[in-house]
């Protein structure tokens, strides 16, 4: 049977992502070092605390621990999240909160509640692919806004808005990751955060603020106050704020949350009802206990140290092996180094070659809604050990030198067949960090 | 700020469900007995096994246990699910399988991959509200097909199809729960299952077969072979089959699955990527171990005994307290007794009165896409203890007698204000069993 005729228009447009193809490659190639996915470092997971907490929960045999639960989330967890938010300068009532099954579900709920087919969602250039996929899956259109070294370019926002309005488009929101953005690692400047609120008011759009990495600032180049969420100064109720425990506790528990104006939170709740009824009851209780017992609070300093070190190792290796060839903005937090290669480099071709050298990354073009970024790449330093990061960068640099040599000789690139070029050209985007 | 202008058309149509309102009422009223939600009985959860399994998993500290994982699901769990399916007569390859975050996510993926706005999904009269909500949330239209005592009325299916085609409507699939249907508890006759496959071929539609209750047959009036899924005889690849561990292990782990033609499974996977990336890693491993260690297999006989007894207790109580007034098809499995009250009864009014007597149920009209079923109610015997079931039915019967007496005196009903009439009239539907 051929199923093409049975698919929705949204399904017809869905494409397998470049990263997923790479995931399969990664499983086939022995000893490959993957700098591709934005996975947290598993040795930072508080295993012993989780074990102790879970044993206590299952031992207590409270029926609700393994039962269906309220769609909004487990009440004590919601209360604990209020405390976490307060620590970030955000006062949220229970009516404004919703637990989600990972932040990806939050993005999906945002898409479904706020976007009609043909509506425009603004995203950064480049932007997190999982958000773009969620918005595209409701057949919204995406438009990109450029970024400077200190985050989104507000003048470009004005230009893009004017141009879209002139075309008669309905722009619903700007999706923004102010803290250590995925994929660039950029930190949005403090004054720009307030200006962004003004701009949102002026253009009458909402801001969807995604903040998975805020707690992971690196003390050598950033401080906590740099990460103050836009939502903390949102007097009008223009900001839908998403955050998650995936990067601070563990992504295996699918627990994240949305803080939004209560009228929108109520809609997210109803949309979530028909999406997965509720987030896992045990997962929510484990996270709640991890907050109550101070496990989450203890994670912060530890994670900042671990990831800052890995960032330093990656930067040092890049400098050593490819200094002068590659450039990147210094990551002040988060998981990623955003690399620009010489203009002659096609990162798809580089990836093919890198795979033969036993290293993977994500081609930068996958993050650009406008198809640009051909010579960019995203390197994640979060998951591999420092030794593997160093070796991975060494391999990548070898591949880069080889590719440049080939280009210099005019032989042409290594081709892209092994990886496919599904990335930007087909409008494909991909989630998971 | 008023957010009405920011909502998608789908969001504007979303309404809070009658059941959720009842949930809030239930929390307010002390000692209320809820026969409303289709929750499994928590004393059937294999607590000790879960505790032991989880402790082993967290103790082993395999990084993948708490990490992001493949969207398709944890490979050993997928293999184990193949074994579960084989036990039901279904041969499924890995390419045809996908783990979902509860079956509700499966329904949502089905909706998103198979339905465009304006497309028609056929559902049974009455049908599971969570499915209807998922289909409506992508702005599909629903059309109802009548049921006989042995399940869906195939002649009515032909009539409905003819009428929809005459209107130029595009019908994509029929959603059907053949085993102990929610809300009626009906078992689709064996010969009708094959006829349904023929009808699907003839009408060129797919079948979405939802099978959460198949293992819960009651041996006094049914046998395992009665529950053979339609999918087991699906030679063409017309059936998308959904099932879950929520009723056999525990719903607190959000682990369910879809078995579908590989071309569709691939689309479900891509849709799921942007929905929640992956189902919880630890949850999947716990379920996998529960299958491997024989915990799931041991649950079957135990659950059948427990729920059959509860069914018997509820039927006996109904007979004793309201025999002659209420009628219902004998449940041959599952969680529900589907009750028809005298024609004069409005179940919304009855519910208001029942609440004052300290008992809750779900008004039947919530399950009817055509707004009918005014004098029907769904009673779930799954969660409460036998003693509470008996007392709940006693209270319900007292409310019924009082309501009938009031009607007889021409005083009029007790009104519906306390519960609201959001149910069928506003097209509202509600998930969670």
What does this structure look like?
- Two copies of one chain form a homodimer.
- In chain A, α5 (102-114) runs parallel beside α6 (129-136).
- In chain A, 41% of the residues lie in helices and 13% in strands.
- Chain A has two domains: 9-45 and 300-408, Aspartate Aminotransferase, domain 1; 47-296, Type I PLP-dependent aspartate aminotransferase-like (Major domain) (Aspartate Aminotransferase, domain 2), CATH 3.40.640.
- In chain A, β3 (120-125), α6 and β4 form a beta-alpha-beta unit.
- The first copy, chain A, contains 13 helices and 13 strands.
- Residues 414-431 of chain A have low confidence and may be disordered.
- Chain A is an alpha/beta fold.
Show the helix and strand layout.
Two copies of one chain form a homodimer.
Chain A: H1 9-13, H2 18-28, E1 33-34, H3 47-60, H4 75-87, E2 97-100, H5 102-114, E3 120-125, H6 129-136, E4 141-148, E5 151-152, H7 154-166, E6 171-176, H8 190-203, E7 206-210, E8 239-244, E9 256-259, H9 262-276, H10 281-292, H11 295-322, E10 336-340, H12 347-356, E11 359-360, E12 362-363, E13 376-380, H13 386-408
Parallel strand pairs in A: 1-11, 3-4, 3-6, 6-7, 7-8
Antiparallel strand pairs in A: 2-9, 4-5, 8-9, 10-13, 12-13
């Amino acid at each position: 049977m051929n199923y093409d005729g049975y698919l929705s228009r949204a399904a017809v447009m869905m494409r397998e992502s470049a990263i997923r193809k790479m995931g399969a490659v990664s499983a086939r190639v022995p000893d490959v070092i993957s700098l591709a996915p934005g996975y947290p470092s598993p040795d930072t997971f508080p295993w012993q605390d989780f074990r102790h907490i879970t044993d206590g929960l299952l031992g207590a045999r409270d029926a609700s621990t393994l039962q269906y639960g309220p769609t909004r989330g487990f009440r004590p967890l919601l209360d604990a999240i209020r405390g976490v938010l307060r620590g970030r300068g955000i006062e949220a009532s229970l009516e404004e909160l919703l637990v989600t099954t990972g932040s990806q579900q939050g993005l999906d709920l945002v898409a479904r509640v706020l976007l009609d087919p043909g509506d425009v969602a603004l995203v950064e250039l480049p932007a997190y692919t999982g958000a773009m996929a969620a918005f595209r899956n409701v057949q919204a259109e995406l438009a990109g806004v450029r970024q400077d070294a200190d985050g989104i370019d507000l003048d470009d926002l004005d230009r893009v808005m004017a141009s879209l309005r002139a075309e008669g488009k309905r722009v619903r929101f700007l999706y923004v990751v102010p803290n250590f953005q995925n994929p660039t690692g950029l930190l949005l400047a403090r004054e720009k955060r307030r200006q962004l609120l003004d701009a949102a008011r002026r253009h009458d759009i909402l801001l969807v603020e995604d903040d998975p990495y805020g707690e992971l600032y690196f003390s050598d180049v950033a401080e906590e106050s740099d990460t103050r969420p836009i939502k903390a100064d949102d007097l009008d109720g223009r900001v839908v704020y998403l955050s998650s425990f995936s990067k601070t506790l563990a992504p295996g528990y699918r627990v994240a949350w949305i803080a939004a104006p209560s009228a929108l939170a109520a809609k997210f709740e109803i949309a979530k009802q028909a999406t997965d009824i509720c987030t896992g009851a045990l997962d929510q209780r484990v996270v709640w206990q991890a907050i109550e017992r101070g496990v989450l609070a203890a994670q912060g300093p530890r994670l900042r140290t671990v990831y800052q070190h890995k960032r330093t190792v990656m930067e040092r290796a890049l400098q050593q092996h490819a200094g002068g060839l590659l450039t990147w903005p210094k990551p002040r937090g988060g998981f990623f180094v955003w690399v620009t290669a010489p203009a002659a480099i096609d990162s798809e071709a580089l990836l093919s070659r890198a795979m033969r050298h036993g290293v993977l990354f994500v081609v930068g073009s996958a993050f650009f809604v406008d198809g640009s970024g051909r010579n960019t790449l995203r390197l994640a330093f979060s998951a591999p050990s420092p030794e593997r990061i160093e070796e991975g960068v060494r391999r990548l640099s070898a591949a880069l030198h080889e590719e440049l040599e080939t280009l210099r000789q005019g032989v042409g690139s290594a081709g892209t067949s092994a990886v496919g070029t599904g990335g930007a050209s087909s409008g494909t985007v991909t989630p998971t960090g």
